[in-house]
Amino acid sequence: MSDATQTHGANGGRAIAFDNSYARLPDIFFAPVDPTPVEAPRLIAFNRPLAEALGLDAEALERHGAAYFSGNVPLPGSLPLAMAYAGHQFGQFVPQLGDGRAILLGEVVDRAGQRRDIQLKGAGQTPYSRRGDGRAALGPVLREYIISEAMHALGIPTTRALAAVTTGQPVYRDRVLPGGVFTRVAASHIRVGTFQFFAARGDTGNVRVLADHVIDRHYPDLKGADRPYLALLDAVADRQAALIARWLGIGFIHGVMNTDNMTISGETIDFGPCAFMDRYDPRTVYSSIDRAGRYAFGNQPMIGQWNIARLAEAMLAILDDDQDKAVEQANAAVGRFMERFQDHWKAVIRAKIGLGAREEDSDQDLIRDLLVTLYEQKADYTLTFRRLADAAEDDAADARLGALLEDPHALTPWLAAWRVRLAGEPATLQDRAAAMRRVNPAFIPRNHKVEEALTEAVDHGDFSLFAALNDVLARPYEDQPAFAAYSEPPRPGEEITATFCGT
User: What is the 3-class SS of 408-454, one letter each residue?
Assistant: First the structure.
């Protein structure tokens, strides 16, 4: 029997119908905790289209959003809890982390029949807060709203933003800042670190309980597999390989790929020190806490494999009763990760330069030579590919493309070879260019534009740039000439060289 409970707004309509499967797991999986009320909440942003897709009563939630999304007014049917998990943070294992400033309100089944978590971030202390205050500053709240919704518009699997509120009270970091609460929606918040939490305690029974829950929730087609837990490990590895390939396709750098920030569902989660690369350089790092470059742009596939190895270790006891066989199976699954990534990346980069499914021996050289030239010429990653789409149907666009390079003619030999290769493809010039524009965005969350919007909001209480940026980023594959300034790389003095976790 479902424990779905109807929540009613002031108008008597249903607001949220919760069905909380995670709360039915054993007590060790979480700690019940209520949000801590704030002084003067105010709704800053409400994602009405997402609310409607979730099957929520958008009218009721928007009308009472400040109270609901701050945690001041409990939503009937919610069972607030903080999830337990562990994790490797910059390679160092921490056996207990958990939701230190996040509270899972519960789950809903959306209009597509998919189960979704609704979580508050910054809603107060939990048993896992350690020495933290459980609060969030407004800047990181608005940053996660911008980036997560931009990722969704770009077609990248991601957690979503349902709402953002200000709390009316300060938080204390390196300076006094206004507080905020973020409402996040995810397929689930189960992480590699969730498996590690139980494995580190030798709790094989709950590793199995968790794996069964994950299969039921995310991979139901694996129930009939001969080895469902090995199939689960393979499936998670494949989703992560595909996700990271798509990150690289848009120049995204997560910035803190700890195992507690890798979801089992294959969604991008946690947007603290993340950033989008301007000039192409695989060594690019923005995160102020990644001093050794562990999570640099070009390292992300290797870190993905490393994280999957930690998942395999955590699942080892349930893969096979014979532990020698379990180790062999786990090693094989981890070893397949990079091959999977290369397959996904090949599909991403081929689409970006207009190549179809038919491969030629010279294609890899063509791709490598382009990326080497972009690196040597310090070219803007996003605009180069966008203008390459223009050049696919009109060689008069070559000059605009060349303007992105230190030497405007550096790509001329490559363009000639590329056009010879494209001549063997069946698509028309116009169809090819249109297909390339569908995978090469005109707009990404440029770091300097994000910081500009956050500065106005946090320091001056002006949310107009925040709203405008969200509007532009909702249509990243359209040219939007009126907003061309949002597509341009930073001018000298505008560059952002470091991003911060915000916790």
Answer: CCCCHHHHHHHHHHHCCCCCCHHHHHHHHHCCCCCCCCCHHHHHHHH
pLDDT at residue 446, rounded to an integer: 97
pLDDT at 357 (0 to 100) = 84
**pLDDT of amino acid 14:** 52
The encoded tokens of residue 484 equal 């061309």
Query: Quick check: 20 and 27 in contact, CB under 8 A?
Result: no
Token output for 410:
């550096």
Active site (annotated) includes residue 270: no
* Cβ proximity of 109 and 96 under 8 Å: no
8 Å CB contact between 281 and 497: no
Tokens of 169: 């009270």
Helix (H, G, I), strand (E, B) or coil at 144: helix
Mean pLDDT by 10 residues, the chain (503 residues): 41 71 97 97 98 95 95 94 98 97 97 97 96 94 98 98 97 94 98 98 98 98 96 98 98 97 97 96 95 96 98 98 96 98 98 94 96 98 98 95 97 97 93 97 98 97 98 98 96 89 64
Q: Which of 260, 270, 278, 390 is catalytic?
A: 260
C-alpha to C-alpha distance for 392 and 46, rounded to whole angstroms: 40
Helix (H) or strand (E) holding 323: helix 323-352
pLDDT at position 503 is 52
Give the predicted TM-score (pTM) of the model: 0.95
Could you tell me how many residues make up the chain? 503
Residue ranges of the domains in the chain?
Answer: 5-189, 193-352
Three-class SS state of 239:
helix
What are 413's two structure tokens?
């030999």
Q: Measure Cα distances from 294 to 91, 213, 234, 286, 403 in Å.
A: 9, 32, 24, 11, 33
| Helix axis angle, 228-250 to 300-319, nearest 10° | 170
Tokens representing residue 44 in the block: 């800053």
Neighbours of 92 (CB within 10 A): 8
73's tokens:
């007014």
Least Cα distance to 255 among 490, 447, 469, 97 occurs for 447
pLDDT of residue 262: 98
CA-to-CA dists, residue 436 to 344, 355, 360, 369, angstroms: 17, 9, 19, 19
SS3 476: coil
